[in-house]
Amino acid sequence: MALDLLKGIEEKGLLEVASRTRQHLSNIMRHAVHQELIDTNPAANLGGVTTPPVRRHYPALPLERLPELLERIGAYHQGRELTRHAVLLMLHVFIRSSELRFARWSEIDFTNRVWTIPATREPIIGVRYSGRGAKMRMPHIVPLSEQSIAILKQIKDITGNNELIFPGAVPYCL
Q1: Is position 174 within any domain?
Q2: pTM recorded for the entire structure
Q3: Structural domain tally of the chain?
Q4: DSSP-derived 3-state class of residue 125
């Protein structure tokens, strides 16, 4: 029965979905065994019954093309100005996109030039993952260069006194 389900998903070309479905089935059945609802895990031997999804490895930008990237970012004016600033800041601080998207001004210490990403954040109502903080659920301290501080000050001029550094086009309820 589970094999038919997985094969049906695979036949539709949804290899990643088939792989995750197999993992979920195995986890559910393992839980049922631990809860003594069933004796054995019928999904334990489903590994390898579907074609594994094709993994794409995206190449890094060669260092010699960095000036071109910076030039293109500087010339980007089709979208929101905050988008351009966000991309520039990411190049300086190397943090996760969710850490940046849901960053608060209260996390930035301009005097000591550090950004303290908390272990967790107060979630924004109706916004998935907005309560995530640092990846390891421990405060993460990010040193801020002069360039990062300059970018943050430009962002502050745009966003004003909003609690979020990047408030988005639609205001959130905090």
Answers
A1: no
A2: 0.65
A3: 2
A4: coil
